Each structure stands twice: as C-alpha cells, then as structure tokens.
Amino acid sequence: MNDFEKEMKHMSQIIDNELINYLPQKDTLPLKLYNAMTYSVLSGGKRLRPILVMKSAEFFGLSYEKVIPTACGIEMIHSYSLIHDDLPAMDNDDLRRGKPTCHKKFGEAIALLAGDALLTHAFCAIASNYGIDGILPEAVIDIVREISIAAGGCGMVGGQTADIDTVGKDIDIDTLFYISTHKTGALISVATWAGARLAGASPRDLSLFKDLGDKIGLVFQIVDDILDVKGDESILGKPIGSDLRNHKNTFVSILGLEESLRLVNKLSNEAKDLISDYPNNEFFMNLIEFIANRDH
Ligand code: GRG
Fold first, then answer.
1. ipTM greater than 0.85, yes or no?
2. CATH code (residue 65)
3. Which residues line ligand 1 (CB under 6 A)?
4. How many domains, the chain?
5. CA 157 to ligand 1: nearest atom
6. From the alpha carbon of 184, which atom of ligand 1 is closest?
7. DSSP-H helix ranges across 42-107
8. In the chain, what percentage of residues exceed pLDDT 70?
9. Is the pTM of this model over 0.80?
C-alpha cells in the first residue's frame, strides 16, 4: 500500500468510527429503523464524499476534524441514495457491497423509511458544524443550502429521475452529461466545495473547487460506466446500438469504450491543471489519479 492509499484508508476509518456519533441515539427511534439505517451506513464503502469534505477543508488550512459533522452528513445522504437506488422500483438490486441490500434484509417499507431517516438526519449532522471554533456561522448556512440543492430535485434526485425516465430510450450526449453531473456529480462536487467553504476559502478558490468537484464527479461516473462494462464480458465488444440499447444509457454505450477512456484522461488532466499552482496539491493530484484509474 502506498502513502496515498494508506491516507485514504486512514481517513475512511475515521468516518467509519465517527458516523455513529452523528446518527440518532439508538434509544430515540424504533429499533428496526435504527438497525436498517446502521446496517447500510456502517457497512463500509470507500467514503469518498466525506474524505473530499475533510481534505478540501485541510487544503484551505482548517483541520479536517472540524468538518467531520458535515462529512458524516454527506455520507448519510450518499447511503440514503444507495438504499433507494437499490429498491425494486428503481434498480432492483439484491446485493450492495457484497451484502444483501437494505430492502432484502429489512423489507421494502423499512428500507424506504431508513433512507428517508438518513437523508433527514444528515442535516442534523451538518448543522452540528455550527459553533465549531474556526467556522463562520454563515458558512454553515451556505453549505446547508448548497447541499440541499445538490441532493434534491435540482441535483441528485433530478439526475436520478432523468436516468430512470430514459432507460431503454435513445438519448444524446448532452442528456447523458445532465444525468451524470446531477445523479452522481452533484454530491461529489458539493462535498469538495463544502470543505473549502467551511474553511473560509476565497470566492476565487471556492469557484475553483466547485470546478474541481464537477470534474472529479464526472470522471468518477465515466469510470463507473467503464467498470460496469468491464465487469460484464457479455456486452463488451458488441456493437453500440445492439444489446447495449437494452441496458441503461452510459458513457460507454453512447461514446464507446475508447472515447470514454479518452474523456476520463482529458477531464482528469483538466482537474489536475486547476490545482497545479497550489503547493499543497499532492493529495488531490493523487486522488484524481486514483479515481481515474480505480478498478472497483
Ligand atoms: C435514489 C435519489 C436517488 C439517487 C440515487 C447515487 C445514485 C443516485 C445512484 C447510484 C447508482 C450508481 C451505482 C451510480 C454510479 C456511481 C455511484 C454513485 C456509485 C456508488 O458510489 P461509491 O462507489 O459507493 O462511492 P461506495 O460503496 O464506495 O460508498
């Protein structure tokens, strides 16, 4: 394991340990609901979004420990989105991270409610960033507003709606960009931005980190599409427009594998260029490489 991988592991373990402190107390809600929420949110995962919050705060001189409430809140939103995405009404998945999905384990109604409760409680966690030394109250208001927008109809939920609405239909590349930048990109982007905002970054740096988050989010989604195809040998190599039409619209089904790889390369270079003048850019440079080259 190289130094960057060790750092990612260390940061993800921090989130694994801290999440419990920002979830509701076990004796304050029905046990079944608590069990379903913790089953999903404490079941591992890369913790990419909370790491982005913590590392972007650190990039602008604020200790990552100070933004842990927001980092945990954003992971709760991510966890809710996966629970709902796995439901029979959406992707109808039986497994998530190698374990039965929340609805397979607890039933559909409880899974739906566990997702609802995680989404709502996320804003309790995020609001806990209020009053922490070194963080301006108006920065907390700003991130609550922007995270709500990114998670809601103008962001992730809007992207998911368009995704579901276009399954099996021909869409153009602009529609695919809309779906990806909203369904997946919005939460990744706002996580990158939120740490910077809490750290009091300048308007210029905030705008730059917004762009950085947008590019990271898009690279993440395109690589996800590429990994999907690589994991499904049956559709790899078949002409675009045949069997792939029965699948969801992805970068690979619309652009092809080669062009998708080229786009990953282009966007990750652009992301690196954004921060190349900053002396403390090593972690983000490595992160961009990691996301572009990940194999899971
Ligand atoms: C239900 C409103 C609503 C939204 C769902 C996130 C999402 C939107 C759908 C997930 C579908 C999917 C597999 C998209 C590809 C990109 C993605 C978000 C992968 C999962 O995120 P990771 O890889 O997961 O960060 P881990 O397990 O590491 O937390």
1. yes
2. 1.10.600.10
3. 45-46, 48, 81-82, 84-85, 97, 156-157, 160, 183-184, 221, 224
4. 1
5. 2
6. 18
7. 48-59, 68-86, 102-106
8. 95
9. yes
